[in-house]
Structure formats: C-alpha cells, structure tokens
C-alpha cells in the first residue's frame, strides 16, 4: 500500500498544469487523426465501389470493418499514451496484484472470443451487410459488421447489437432461391381429387402471373388427415426475399377460387 | 495464526483514540471531496449542454458515467487509505493464504467483466440515457449508464439494475423509424377483394390525418387462411416511439369503417 | 499420515482439562462481546435515526449490515483463536495436501462472490430495507440486507434467504411513481366512440375521488381487435405501492358504469 | 509402475494374519467409540432441552448437526489409520500421478462446497429441524440438518436428501404469520356492491369463529374483470401453518352463504 | 517423435511370441482370480444374511458394492501389469505430452466425481437395494449400487444406468408411512355439508376394511371452488408402497357411494 | 517467426519428389495394413461366434469396438509418421506457442471424455449391439459401439451418431420383462363393478391367447375419477419388445368386448 | 509501455514506401497462389470422380474439405509473413502481457474444438455432402463440410453455418430405408375388424402401385382408444427420402377408400 505514499503529492499538483496541456493536445490529436482516417477510408471505398470489383454487400461489409479496426487501434494507442503520460506503469500495478491480473485475464476473454469469431465470420463470408439472417433469437437485415459487434435491424425497426461471440449458428436467408409454403385447410367432407384439381389450376395461373416464382407452385398432397378438416400443402420456389409476397398472393388466389367453386358454403 | 498474538493489543487500545480521530478526518474529507467533485462535474456538463455540441441523450450518458467513475476511484483510494491507517498489509494477509487469493481472483472476475463490457457498450454507443431498449427479459427507458450497472425504468415504473456483464445482446428501439403492424381478423365468408379495398381506404385516410406516419399504412395481403377466419395484415412506418399510438388509431378507424360497411353483422 | 502419531496422545488427555477451561472462557467471552457489540450498534443507530439524517429504509439497511459485518468478523476471530488453542496449524494441514487446498479455494469462491456482489448492491443503493423488489423468481419486501445473504419477505408470509451472488438483475418497484393498467373487454358489437366516452368519464370521476392517483387515468385506445371482443386499455400513474388499489377501484367503477349504461345485457 | 514389484509379496501374505487382527480390533474400536459418542451427545442434548435454554427446533438442529460432525470426524480418523496400517502412503501415490491429483482436487470440490454452504445455512439460522421450507423444487418439513446433506420430508411421505450445495435460495414458510388467499368467481351479471357486502359478512363471521386468524379476512376488491365471470379476492393473516385450514373454512362458508343468497342459480 | 524410431522393431517381433504367452497367462489368471473372488464374496454375504445382523436391503447394497470394488481394483491391477509387460512407461508417454496430460486430468474428473458422490450416498444410507426412489427424471426400484453407477429398474421394466455424479437430489419413497390423496370433483349445485358427510362415512368404512391404512382417511375440506365444480380432498396415511392401492380402493368406494346417494344424476 | 526463413526453400522443392514417393508408399502401406487387419479381426470374431462362448449382442459389440480401436491406433501411428517424414517436430511447434498448447489441451479434453466414458459403458455392459435404449432425447436400436461414438438407429430409420461423453444416463429397455399398460376411459354413469368384471374377463382370455404375456393382464383399479369419465387401468408383464403388441391386442379385445356389452351406446 | 517510444518513428515513415511495395507484392502473390491452388485441387477431384473410385457425396465432401484446409493454411502463412514484414515479434508482444496470452488461449479454444470435432466427423463418416441430417435444431441437406464450419441448406432455402463444435449429436436421415407412419383417426362407433380390413386392403393396393415401398404398408393395430375417436396406425418401409411421398399417397388413398365405404358420414 506504499505506492500511495511514495508519490510526491505536492509535485503532482504543480505538474498538473503541464499534464493538462499535454492531455488536451493528445485529445485534440486523437480527434483530428480519427476524423482524417475515417474520411480517407470512406473515400478509398467509394472509389473501390465505382470500379465494381466487389458486390455492394461485400464492399459495405469490408468498409464498416475497416473503419471499425481503425477506430479500435487508435483507441488502444491513445489509451496507452495517456497512461504513459501519467508515468504510471500499468503492468506493475497489475503484476503487484496477481489476483487482479487473473481477474482481468478472465474478463478480457470475452473480448478475444468476439474478435476470433468475428474474424472467421468474415473470412468464411457467413454474412454481408444487407443479408437477411437469423442469429439465436434475433432476425433482420445486417446493418454493420464489426470486429466486436454485429448490428442487425429487425423488420419492426429495432436495432440489435450482438457481440460476435454470441453468433455461433448463423442462418442466412439471402443465399439462393427460397421456398413459399401454403397450407390449405378444407372441410373433410369434400372430394379430395376435385380439391387437388382446383388448387393445382390456381397454382398454374399464379405461376404464369408472377415472374418472381422460379419453380412450381405445386400441390404436393395431403399433409394432415383430421376427422373434420384436411390440410393440403402447396409449395413453390421463388426469388430471394419474394417468398412472403408469393405466399400472400397464393393465399388470396386460392381463397377466391374456392369461394367461386363452393359458393354455398359461405352463406 | 500468530499474526493475532504479535499485535500489541494494549498499544492498540491506547492508539485507538488517535486512530479514531484520523478516521473521522478521513471520512469527513471523503464526503467533502465527493460532494465537491460531483458539483464540479455537473456544472461542467451543464455548460457543455448549453453549447449543444452533443445530443442530449449522449450528454446525459457521459455525465452519469463520469460521476460514476469519479465515485468509484474515490472509494478505491479511500479504501486503500483506511487499510493503510491500520498498518494492515492486506496483500500479506492474502499471500499468506493463497487459497483465499484464488477465491478472490475468481470472485472479482465478475466485476472486471462488468467494466470491460460497460466500456464497449459506451464506446460503440449501443445505448444512451433516454433510449428505449430491451436487454434479456427487461425492457424500458435507460435511466443511467454506469461503469458496473445500467439502470432501466420499465413502463410500469419499476427500476431495473442490470450488471453490465448481463447486457450481451442489446435491442435498441430508439434507432430510426419504427413499424406499426395491425392484424385484422375477418369472417371467412366475406369477399376478399372488397375487404382489402375498404381497409386500404381507411389506411389512406389515416395516413393523411396522422403526421407521425412516415410511410404507408398499406394492406400487404392475407397472412393466415383459416376455415372460419381470415387474417389481413396492415403495415406502416412511423416516427420513433409513435408506433403504438398509430396502431391504436388504425385499429379504431378500421373497426369504425367495418361497422359502417357491414352493419347487420353486429346485431 | 504421521501427524497422527507425532502427537503426544497421553499429554493431550492430561492437557484436556486446561484446554476445556480455556475453551469455556473463550466461548463466554465470545457471547459477552457479541451481545455487548450488538447493543452498542443498535443504540448508535437509534440515535442516528432520531436526527433524521438518513431515510428510514437506508438507516435500517445500514444497521442490519453493520450488525452482520460485526458478527462475521467476531466469528472469524473466534474461529482462528480456537484453532490456535489446539496448537493446530491449519495452513500446514492444508499445504500438506495441495489437493484439499485447491478444493477449498474453489469451494470458498462462492462466499467471495457473495461478499463482492453484496458490497456493490449496497454501494449503488440498489435496494434498501422495506423496498418491494423482484429478484430472479422471488418478489417481496426486503427485510434484511447482509454481507452474504439478503432476506425477502413475500406477501404470503414466506421468508426467502437469497445469497447475494444470486442477486444479479434487481427489479426495484419502490423507486418512483407506478403505473396502474386495466384492460376492459367489451363485446365487438358495441359502438367504439360511445364506449370510450363512458370509460373516460369513469376515469375522470375516479381521478377526482382518489388522491393516490398522480396522473390520469386515461383511456389510451383499442389494444386488441378480436372478432367477438374488443380490449380497451386504461392507464394511470399512482403513488408507489398504491397501483393495485387504484386498479381494483377502477375495475369496480367501470363495471358499475357499464352495468348502468347497458342494463339489458346482464339478464 | 514399479511400486507393484517393490513390495515383498510373500511378506505381505505372512503379515496378513497380524494385519487382520489389527484391522478387526480397529473396526471394533470404531464401532464402540461411535456408539458411545452418539449416546453421550444425545444425553447432553436431552439435558439441554430440559433447561429450555433453546427453542426445540434449534436444539434438534444442533443435535443432528453435532452427531453428524462427530460421525464424519470419526470416519476420517478411521480411514487415515487403516491406510497407515497398510504402510501405504496415499499422498505418494497421488503425487506420483499429478493427473490423478488434479482430478481428485476437482472431484472433492463439491464436498467442500457442501460444507461451506452448510456452515453458513446454520450460522444464519436459515432453517431449523421442523421448519416447513421450499428449496429448488422440493418442499416439506426439515427432518435433519447435516454437514453435507439436509433431509426434507415432503407431505406425501417421501424423504428428500439434498446436498447443501444445492440449497441456495431457501424459502422458509415457518417465519411469522402467513396469508390465506381465496379467489371467488362470480357470474358477471351479479350486482357488485351486493356481492362484496355478502362476502365481507361471511369474512367477519369466520374471523369471529376461528382464533387462528390474526387479521382480516377482508374482501380487497375485484381482481379480474371477465365478460362472463368476475373474480373477487379475499385475504387474511393467520397463524403459521394454519393458512390452508383457514382457506378451506373460508371456501366452505362463502359457498354456503352464496347458496343461501342466490338459491335459484343452483337448480 | 523419436520414441517410434528408438524401438528395436525386429526385436519386438521376435519377442512377440514370449509376450503373447505371458499375456495369455495373465488373462487366464485375471479370469480365475475374478471368478474365485466373486464366489468368496457372495458366500460370505450369504452367511452374513443368515445371521440377520443387517436388513436385507442394506445387505444387498453392501454385497453389490463389495463385488463392484473388487472388480474395479482387479481391472486396475491387470491394466497396470499389461502396460508393464510391454515395457511401456505410460507416465513418460503422458509427461512427454503435457497437453495430453491436462486433457486426461480433466477427462478423469468425472470418474472421481462419481466415486466421491457414490461414497457419500452409501455412507449416509441415502438409498438401499430395493428402495423406491426418484433421481432427476428417473424413478424406480434400486437394483444395484456401484462405485461408479447406480442401476434403477422403473416400473415399465426399463433398467436405468445412472452415473453417481448425476445423483444429487435423492427422493426416497421407502422411508416411512406414505400419504394417499384423493380429490373428488362434485357438481357445484350439491349441498356441501351433505357431501362431506357422505364422503367421511365412506372413509370410515374403508379405514375399517383396509389394514394398510395407518391414519385416516379424512375429508379435509374444499380444495377448489369453481363455478360448476367443487373439489373436495380426502387424505390418509398408509403403509409404505400401499398408497396407490389405498387411493384406488378409496376412489372405487366413493364412486359407488355417490352413485347410491344420487342415482338420478347418472341417467 | 523465423522458422519460416530458416528452411532451405530450394532444397525443399528438390526433395519434394523423394518425399512424394515416400508419402505414396506410406499411404499404400496404411491402406494394405488397414484392410488386412480388418479382415483378420472379422475372421477371428466369426470363429468366436461359432463357439457360442458369448451372446450375439455382446460379440457384435466387442467386434465393432475392436475394429474401432484398431482403426484409431493405425491412424495415430500414420499421422505421427507423416509428420516425421517432413522433419517437422510438432512438439516444438506447440511448445513455441504455449498459447496454442493450452488451447489444444482444452480442445482435446472432449475426446478424452469420450474415451473414458466409452470405456466404462463397455466395462459395465450398459449396452450391447441390438439393445433398444434411450439416451438423452434419442431412442432406438444400438447399431455400433465405438471408442468415441455410439450409433443408434431409431425406428423411423434415422441413424444417430452420439459422442460417448453425451451418454450419461442410459435407459436400457432390453434388460428383462416389460410392462404393458392400457388405460380405458369409460363414461361415469356406468356401474363400476360390472365394468371391472367385463375387463378382467377380456384380460383372462387375452392372457390365454398370447404366449408373450408372462404375468397378468389384470385390472388394477380406478386410476382417475372425473365427473364425466372414469379411467380404469390394466397392467401385464410381457416378453421384452412385445409390450407394444400386447397393448394393441388388449386395446382391440377390450374395445370389441365393450361394444358387445353396451351395443346401444355406439349408435 | 516503452515499446511505443523505442521505435524510430521517423524511420518508420521513410521505410513506409518500401514496406508498402513489399506488402502489395505479398498480397498479389497470395491471391495468385490461392486461385492457382484452388484450380489444381478442383481439377484433381474432377478427374477423381470420373474414375468413380468414391461415391459422389464422399468425393464432394473431400473436395470441399481439401479446398478449405488449403485456404486456411495459406491464410496462416500469409498472416505470419505480414507480421514478419513489420519486424514485429508477436510472441514478444504476447509474452510481455501474460494476461493477454491467457485470454487468447481461452479465446482460441473454440477454434481448436471446431477442428478436432470436424476431424472426427469426417473420419467417422458421420455426414457427407448431400446427406439429409438434423443437428441440434437445424435440419437440411449438407452443402459443404469444412474444417471449422459445416453448411446445411434447409428445405425453405435458408443456408445454416454451424461451427463444428456445435455438431455433437448428428442424426443422419440418409443411411438406409426409412419408415412411413400414418395415424388414422376413426369415430369410436365403427366396427374395429371391418375398419382394419378396409385399411389393410388400401395398404396392399398402394404397395403394389408404389415401387418406392420396400416393406408393408401394414396396419399394426389400435394406437389410442378414446371415447369418441380411435387411432389406427399404419407403417411402411420406403426408399430413403421417399417416406413423405409414401405417407401423402397413403393418406389420400385411405381417405378415398373411407369415403367410398362410409358415404353417409360426410353429408
């Protein structure tokens, strides 16, 4: 506990002015370099995009990452210099209390996990800015990919900040054609063959009308056989992110077709 | 176990008076410096805000944080000086019992986790005082952001104290326009095209009446196709925190419009 | 395993009498000092409270904590002196079996966690004696705050002992005005504007009658739009701990008003 | 692996007879000392109880604990002497295989956790023999409190053995007056003021008849407002462990009173 | 990686014959000693049981445990001798690769946990062979108690092998009288006093007829007060393992009595 | 990072040809030895089975295990020799980076856990190839038992690969007679004695017809007493794996008997 | 913190140009070697497949793995050379801060787990590219198997990236014939023998019509005996991945047959 006494408290106060000036200069320098660096990186990526050498999603991913790395390295250097300014030797402080060291080691563990995981997410291109993904219980559009955190904007407008270490199983919904699936419940007393015929007709008409549909839609058969209701399943392949619209159109068309075919039932 | 004997118990008692006086002085000093420091920090931030160089939420966040850091450092110095006063060498006590040391190291681990996580939450601006956020199972308005704990006030008035280490996935609902979503259940025997036409008309009128709506509202289609009920979905983009009011107005307007269009049904 | 032989078993038995006397003296001393200390602390706090320098809840919190710390330190000193009496060197016993040491280190870890967490709960004033809080799955009134355990009395009379390490997310319901929320279900065939008018009238009358209401109550709109039922929400701000009474009064007044307005329905 | 060869196997066999006799003497001694010690402890506590210096629950708790500690210490000494008899140095065996040592250290960790937790449960008087408690998913009457395990007898006769380390959050239902709570469902068409009047009358009569009721019972108001049913809540304070009987009596009296007041409804 | 080269591969092959013979002798010896030892242990316990010095359950528990310990020690000695035969020094192999050592230490940790827990389960007599117990999600009759695993036979015939480390909270249903509990649902329009009278009469007759009932059965009152149904609870104390039969007889007798008392209702 | 420079890159390329030949020879050798060894082991076990010295399930278990151990040891030797070929000293690589070593140690921990657990599962004969078992959430027939993984084929044809470390609580359904349990729901207005008489008659007839039934079936009494339905339970002991068929036959026979006895009810 | 000062900052800037050129050359080299290597590997596997020495699934698995390993090794070498270029000794940086080292060790642990698990998944052929598998909560067709991550394409088009360490229990649905299971609910008043006869007839006809059925389908009996409904189960063995189609055909055929047999019921 002597490290408190060994300091020349009086001297500290007299030196405070000098220190303060140095501190202000450093803070100013930090903000100048930071804004300069940011501008340069953004400028470089803007040029990069013009040449179309990368997909837009990937380019945005790399830009947000580069800005992120730049900011973190700057913070780290700034932090070390501030400590240096005060003639404090943080390692001595830590070494003196091995207990604290152990605690810090464990505490920082999460941070390293974030960076290691983040590195592999990017290397393996598991997600790009603009992708629609599901991670644990969150789903939405990737807004920013950072060294430590990934930002996902869900459809209701909420912005989720997820530490990379929590991103283990990534479900990326923006990698290829999607499937539209509609389950139709019909009363059990209807004739099955007739029902399937009507539904398939609607499917064929819808396929002709919607260019977003890539395959099908087709009636694949009876999915569930209840005593009062039968569930018939219709499946189609659609362009990415168009699956919901196709499902809604299919539901409306099937509803209209069934109302036309069995008008009595609804009165 | 000899460290109990080696003390001059008699001397301790005679010195107790001197110690007590020193102790009282230190406690007084602690409270004086604390209240002084608090005032200065608050004063500085008040000036800061006048110049409008930061958003109000961010300024409040930084103020509560600065107060927090100041209080913790003061407590730490005070704690070390008290120990010093009693000529106790806590490190010897600890080193003598390596077991205790290990235990303390693990015990303090949570504290370090809190500070590391808290630091990054602030650095990445994941939340500001006044934001409406969801963290694990708690949601509410951020009231204070500290080095170790974040305080969230939920809408029913409860104040939640959440250690920063528990703040992993932050869902911030105050970052951009929000979506208002209303699901309308209508009887299956209604004509679909007519229904959609009426609903869209209500939407257009509401959009004209409410300036908080930024986009839509629009009927996006049939969401669910039951045998007795059909669910039609309406979506709008609104100003932040205005989504609930827009939803309530939409529900009321749609209800009134449907009652007008199908008056028989309700008798 | 020779430490069992190396003892002078005969001598131990002859010395047993002397030891027994010492032991009895120590136990007596322990109980005398304990009861004396307890009285002094209680006396000091009684004086403290008279001067009203602290809120009652905070004063009780500090009193129960001081008694707690005093008791633990006394137990620790007593425990060490007993060991000393028997000329046993517990550290040697432990060091001799490094395995046991490791186990003890891990075992004591929970205890340190309790104390560290307890310290910060108190420092940050997360809870005071008398507060109504929710911690994990327990809720009730804080009865005692200790260095290791916090006692919560739930409304059915059960006393919960919760180790401080389990108190991570504290939801304190005694920090500010609370919200009373009443959801009214009305049949879907009723006229919405009329309903809202009646409900708002009841709200205004209740607000006039109950001084515990600080703001509102107000009908905020339609919360849910079913095919046979509509849910209308009423919200008010009330004094702390008065929210349930306000909700019950509101429910009764609204029920009476609706019965008066639509007498037929109930027959 | 040479420690198997270095033994004089032949000598071991010739010495086996001597060892066997020693072993039998030790086992006999163990059982004699054990039963003697048990008797003495029980005798001492019987005297203790006569003098009424402790509550019965607390006395039983201390007795079961003292017997427990005595048995464990005896087992430990017996175990070490048996090992000593065979000239085996267990520490060498362990040290020779550091891997095994590590494993044992971790394995014994749970045992230490049990003892540390058990010590604090007793020190803080969280439970006594005879208390009705809930621990994790088990509830019942505490039958025995040990250094390592606590035994709880649930009402269906099952005896639960719970290691102390699993006893974290203790809910003790035997610390003070309990609350009896009865929710009465009444049809929505009834007049509210009349209903509350009848119920309060029953409450007052029951309070007069049952001396176990310490406060109330009182009708506190409408708890839930359904479209066909209304829930009215009645609350009372009762003597400990009498809450269920009071609830049952209240239910019967209320049922009888409502049948008398509205005789038509039940036909 | 030189430990592969330094072996005299040719010599190994020529020595293989000698080794093989040694190996076969050792395997034969292992099986002979094993079956001999097993027979002796079983014989000893058979004699032991004749003298009735222990309860049968406890004797079976100790027998299965002794066989278990004998088998494990034999396996361990056999394993070490096989390694010795091949002139392999396993510790060198392990020490050479500290990484492997660490892994093995952690891997064996579970095994040590099993043995430590198993030891205390037996010492504290938490379960005996033949007891009906519940452990985590398994319940059944204990069939065998081992040093590492406990076998439980559930009533549907499945045999569960549970590592002792997973046996934390033991619920033993074979320790004392059990409670039989029957809840009777009666229509809300019945007269309560009459119902209770009839039920108590059935209870008294059943108590006279069944000697397995030790106390009661008694009608303890109304457990639940619904608008259309009332639940009346009957409780009895029975001999161990007879609770289900008593419950079934009570249900049948009550059903018959109610059919006799209210014959109209069932047509 | 100098180990990259110190290599004679040119020499590496000229030596590549020699290395490649060596490598090919080794790979060929590996495949030859592997297929040879596999054949010999299978041949030995085929002979073994002819002599009927082991049950078929146990023999298959041992065969799949022996093949497994052989394959793993071969892979290990092959792996070490490949490394040796390239003059790489893996231990140096690892030792140079202690961090990597630590990580590998932790990573390999799971593998050791698998082998240790697998060893005890086999030693204690918890499962054999062909047994019907339940492990965590998977159930099916054991297809292969390996040193690291166990393969279970569920009844729908899926093959589950389960690492042995995940096999903690094993529920083996192939160890002894099983219980068939059928719950019959009958309307509450039926006469109980008559019902039980009819059911017991069906049970006796079924017992005579099905040789797979070893004991019973018997009507054990009323399991549940509802206001409109009564549940009567029938229990039988059957041969292993025949329980489902017995249950189905019992259900059919009871249904037919009840239809015959109460013909009106079904029209 | 002196490592920042000891650098010749001026020299660094002058050397920056040289470094930049080196850096660009290295990056170019990296991309050239990478694309070259990729092409060669793909070419080799294309030839490999022509010779049909491996199943297609296995060949794709090995190809994706080889590309993966190649890419990771290249990245590692590139990363080390970049560090070397800057004359940075990363190990010194790490060693200087033992705390960081510890953290990195723990952080990298997950990566090693991935590789170890991935290695065994491949060695034991638990899955191949093209297999239909279930892993934790994800199911779909395996698209790529990597050293660190496995990609699964679910049927709705989503691509799941799963770190190998999360692949513990693999359920592979592409290993052998599958079972089709259809449960038919029939009204309780039907004659059971007649129902089973009709269903078995449909099964036999379907078996004749569908070549994908390998065994059955057969009516195995009554699965559930309700008071108003009876559930009859039909089971068949089918070719892999054809089970759903067989189930759908069976449902349709059974529905048609029942409608023909009991025409009245549906009107």
UniProtKB/TrEMBL annotation, chains A, B, C, D, E, F, G:
Membrane topology (UniProt): Multi-pass membrane protein
Residue ranges of every copy of the Mechanosensitive ion channel MscS C-terminal domain listed in the record: 182-260
Gene3D superfamilies tied to this protein: 1.10.287.1260, 2.30.30.60, 3.30.70.100
TM stretches of this protein: 12-33, 65-86, 92-123
Primary location: membrane
Protein name: Small-conductance mechanosensitive channel protein MscT
Keyword terms: Cell membrane, Membrane, Transmembrane, Transmembrane helix
Domain Mechanosensitive ion channel transmembrane helices 2/3: 68-109
Family membership: Belongs to the MscS (TC 1.A.23) family.
A Pfam family recorded for this sequence: MS_channel_3rd
């Amino acid at each position: 506990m002597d490290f408190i006494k060994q300091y020349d408290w009086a001297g500290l106060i007299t030196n405070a002015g000098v220190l303060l000036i140095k501190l202000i200069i450093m803070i100013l320098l930090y903000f100048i370099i930071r804004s300069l660096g940011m501008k340069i990186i953004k400028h470089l990526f803007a040029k990069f995009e013009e040449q179309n050498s990368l997909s837009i999603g990937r380019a945005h991913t790399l830009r947000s990452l580069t800005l992120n790395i730049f900011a973190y390295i700057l913070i780290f250097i700034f932090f070390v210099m501030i400590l240096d300014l005060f003639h404090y030797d943080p390692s001595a402080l830590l070494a003196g209390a091995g207990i604290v060291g152990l605690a810090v080691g464990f505490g920082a563990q999460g941070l390293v996990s974030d960076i290691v995981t983040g590195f592999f997410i990017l290397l393996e291109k598991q997600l790009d800015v603009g992708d629609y993904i599901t991670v644990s219980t969150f789903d939405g559009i990737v807004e920013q990919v950072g060294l430590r955190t990934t930002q996902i904007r869900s459809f209701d407008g909420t912005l989720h900040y997820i530490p990379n270490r929590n991103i283990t199983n990534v479900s990326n919904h923006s990698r290829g054609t999607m499937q539209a699936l509609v389950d139709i419940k019909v009363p059990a007393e209807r004739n099955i063959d007739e029902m399937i015929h009507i539904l398939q007709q609607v499917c064929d008409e819808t396929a002709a009308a919607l260019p977003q549909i890539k395959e099908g839609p087709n009636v694949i058969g009876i999915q569930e056989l209840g005593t009062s209701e039968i569930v018939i399943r219709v499946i189609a392949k659609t362009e990415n992110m168009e699956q919901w619209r196709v499902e809604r159109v299919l539901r409306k068309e099937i509803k209209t077709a069934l109302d036309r075919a069995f008008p009595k039932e609804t009165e």
